[in-house]
Amino acid sequence: MKAIRRFTVRPVLPEPLRPLHDLARNLRWSWHTETRELFRSADPEAWRPADADPVRLLGSLSAGRLAELAGDAEYLGRLAAASADLAEYLEGPRWYQEQQAAGAELPAGIAYFSPEFGVTAALPQYSGGLGILAGDHLKAASDLGVPLIGVGLLYRHGYFRQTLSRDGWQQEHYPVLDPNELPLDLVREADGTPARVVLALPGGRSLHACVWLARVGRVPLLLLDSDVEENAPGERDVTDRLYGGGSDHRLLQEMLLGIGGVRAVRTWCRLTGAPEPEVFHTNEGHAGFLGLERIRELVAEGLGFEPALETVRAGAVFTTHTPVPAGIDRFDRGLVARHFGDDGELPGVPVEKVLALGTETYPGGRPELFNMAVMGLRLAQRANGVSTLHGAVSREMFSGLWAGFDPAEVPITSVTNGVHAPTWVAPEVFRLGAGRIGEDRAHQVLAGGPVTGGEAEPGATPRRWDAVSGIADQEIWDLRRDLRGQLVTEVRRRLYASWRRRGAGTAELGWIDGVLDPDVLTIGFARRVPSYKRLTLMLRDRDRLRELLLHPTHPIQIVVAGKAHPADDGGKRLVQELVRFADDPRVRHRIVFLPDYGMGMAQKLYPGCDVWLNNPLRPLEACGTSGMKAALNGCLNLSVRDGWWDEWFDPDFGWEIPTADGSAVDEDRRDELESNALYALIEDRVAPHFYDRGAAGLPDRWIAMVRSTLVNLGPKVLAGRMVREYVERLYAPAARARRALEPAAARDLAAWKAKVHAAWPGVSVDHVESASDTAECGSAELGATLALRARIALGGLDPDDVEVQAVAGRVDSGDAIADAQVFPLKPAGGQDLEDRWLFEGPLALDRTGPYGYTVRVLPAHPRLATSAELGLVALPAEAAGEGAGVLLR
Fold it and tell me: Which residues carry this modification: N6-(pyridoxal phosphate)lysine (predicted)?
């Protein structure tokens, strides 16, 4: 019999237990050990760390148990302490407030938009690394006191839950999530009615959404939900599932996230008195429409489109996580056009200007498509990749937007991702360190903020956990075995449940009790399953892998997990291939595939593994933070030099898998070479390090690497370090730029840009000459100085509108300049009869060997973030003799 109406019955807590409600509704419990322990002790049998949910737990407690807890003085004392600690955490000054008190100019508020957020398994609104990164960003911002507002969508089905068929094929399931049973509260107007966000759709239709609030420590996370009665069935399903549906569905999701998200932020600030954000951070292109909504707001206030665009750009930060063009959302221009303009959203903003922002104007681009990442870059004055290598890849990938500049000069920087240590460090690892420096200082170290009560932290570099250096080898080894043993228990439980869902009977599963061994070297591999991550590279030579798994003295065991996108049959075939190998009775006690990879599983997997494996096709891994989480628990990395591992690899932290780079190597040959390198590393170096014992019966070299990973690598991978870099390098400059662009200044800047764009076809480098006391024909001496003179046509611009530079450095056989240095040339006279200006300056020769220079002209304005911002550069014509690039040998 089916119910005709559904509602949620909430528990009524006895008065002494009322603080439990606030503790359960603030997601800080997900990374605060003492609060989690408080909930666990309320019902130890019902509390499972892998899928813990205090809201659900409180709803399941019987009246008798609640009465018992209400009369337990010891429990009430712990409750009072936890409640007081949360209050101090939420209200007390932290790193950000201390920086403001010291005079730092920081934004009053920052809005952070992301299509997914992985905060806790109890709020399943994530699919993989992008969402986990966003969740860690919010948590670290909370720990540091950064006034962030998170903005996302509430997906009623979340991402999918993964099971396996009997033959190992991935099955997807979409459980319905009831927001009333999640740690969420509905945002309401002052009169108690639900706050609403409304978007106009073509044909006079509307898309309505309510706004749910998740409290992530000090950070409010606003989640928009289209499943409301005002919507027609099609519109109700806009937020049905993460990354689901066709192009029209995805476009509506991204319009709701970006445009609706800005409106939700305005509503939140109006209702709570929170400062309006000065900086808007777009985490990947999915939320890029937020910039258009901000332009619409300013246009409605009387500012023209171009000045509004400059104002929006000044206060915007765009982060790209995508190392390949195929990973970027692109929509048909006609589809986008139908949703904007007077019959849709953003009235007053010309449709052709909207379309121009997303047009692929570079060689090889498809002008019929609307590119969300291109729009994101054009709407943000500051942009970044998520590792040093990914920054370089991004500059190359988007270099067409800045034609005439070398990729190294493309204005995309990088902030290497970090992970939220209090979330990912196992309690046992935390206690080991806290036993040496105390819990308060250990919390501060993991949060990435300044350490009080001890040595001052130098600059922006988080303090190293130096106390780990004094921990005895035996303690570290015992800890590692304990964590490995916990993983073995967890794997057996999950594997048994998986086989039962695959249709196996109890009588078939006795072998699971012997799966894995707490004394065997354990390798972990868990991530999404696109082809470039190469889930099955380890299967390239199956006989060799079996030999490694079953080695008589140096065996290994492997735990694998990962989800393929529901529409990716190729990824599903990779999963099936791995599962079928792991099902082989000869090796199934040494290699397992665990379905339904998520945060709950990960929090056991990272600490329990000895080695974390990552073997993507370089350089397609933007960052790859799973290895960071493993490292924080003393797990060593075995990885291709991609993402973060490329910049922070050290032999004391793990091993580098050699790559077979080069255009002459086809994909099949590359996989063969790199898989052989992987097998050899495990056989010759990794396993011997683990099993070779010293005089005390311990693997001395292995333990030394674990200690070095914790002490020296740990501080680098903290999300606190990452957020501080965002604040200092991107948020603060963006806020200053935005404050400087009051309407009059914005109009002046827009007018100046229009003038420069109109005049630029007439800007040219007409003649360049040099003189030197030591220069002879085609050569010069080290230490000499060339006096450069350049005649520049400015096309009606003034000298103050441009910057003239000599660009010099070593040259290759094709006369391309590498490791360039820039030398400014200054105006040295007025216009000549041909309307050219003279610029002069010295060029110091501080390098030997083939050397060359050229001269270029760039737009110059004090409000530009970089000289490449406009994408305009004038260079000498190739036929201009020495001006095209003089070569000195």
Answer: 629
How far apart are the C-alpha atoms of 23 and 38, rounded to whole Å? 10
For residue 159, give both structure tokens. 């991402």
pLDDT tens track for 467-482: 677 889 999 999 999 9
Averaged pLDDT, 246-258: 96
| HSE, side-chain direction, 13 A CA sphere, residue 510 | 1
CA distance 751 to 320: 30
23 vs 39: CA distance, rounded Å: 9
Strand 148-153 versus strand 110-113 pairing type: parallel
Q: Would you state the structure tokens that stand for residue 553, as one six-digit string?
A: 């003295």
Bond before 619 cis per omega within 30 degrees: yes
Distance of CA 115 to the CA centre of its chain: 12
Is the entire prediction scored with pTM above 0.90? yes
- Reported as type and span, the H/E element at residue 732 is helix 732-740
CB crowding 154-170: b at 16 or more within 10 Å, else e: bbbbbbbbbbbeeebeb
Q: Quick one: average pLDDT of 153-170? A: 95
Single-letter residue type at 423: T
What is the maximum alpha-carbon separation in the chain?
A: 99
Treating both helix axes as pointing N-terminal to C-terminal, what angle do 667-681 and 542-549 enclose, rounded to 10 degrees?
20
The three-state (H, E, C) secondary structure of 757-812, written as one string: HHHHHHEEEEEEEEECCCCECCECCCCCEEEEEEEEEECCCCHHHEEEEEEEEEEC
Q: Which two tokens stand for residue 598?
A: 């998520």
> What angle is formed at CA 328 by the lines to CA 325 and CA 329, rounded to 5 degrees?
140
Q: Are 349 and 305 in contact (CB under 8 A)?
A: yes
User: Which of 371, 367, 421 lies closest to 139 in space, CA to CA?
Assistant: 421
Residue 450 pLDDT > 60: no
Work out the angle at residue 768's Cα, subtended by the Cα atoms of residues 767 and 771, and round it to the nearest 5 degrees.
140
pLDDT above 70 for 761? yes
Please check the confidence at residue 73 and state whether its pLDDT lies above 50.
yes
Angle among Cα 719, 721, 723 to the nearest 5 degrees reads 70
Query: Which position has the token pair 């998986």?
Result: 498
Three-state SS letters, 428-480: HHHHHHHHHHCHHHHHHHHHCCCCCCCCCCCCCCCCCCHHHHHCCHHHHHHHH
DSSP state at residue 188:
B
Distances (CA, A) of 327 to 284, 320, 661: 11, 11, 22
In single-letter form, the type of residue at position 759 comes to: A
Structure tokens at 229: 């009665």
What length is written for the chain? 889
Given a cut of 90, whether residue 772 has pLDDT beyond it is no
pLDDT higher than 50, residue 775 = no
Percent of the chain whose pLDDT exceeds 70: 94
3-state secondary structure 545-607: HHHHHCCCCCCEEEEEECCCCCCCHHHHHHHHHHHHHHCCCCCCCCEEEECCCCHHHHHHHHH
User: CB-based burial of residue 3 (10 Å sphere; 0-12 exposed, 13-18 middle, 19+ buried)?
Assistant: exposed
CA–CA separation, 739 vs 315, rounded Å? Answer: 8
Please answer whether residues 527 and 533 qualify as being in contact, where contact means their C-beta atoms are separated by less than 8 angstroms.
Answer: yes
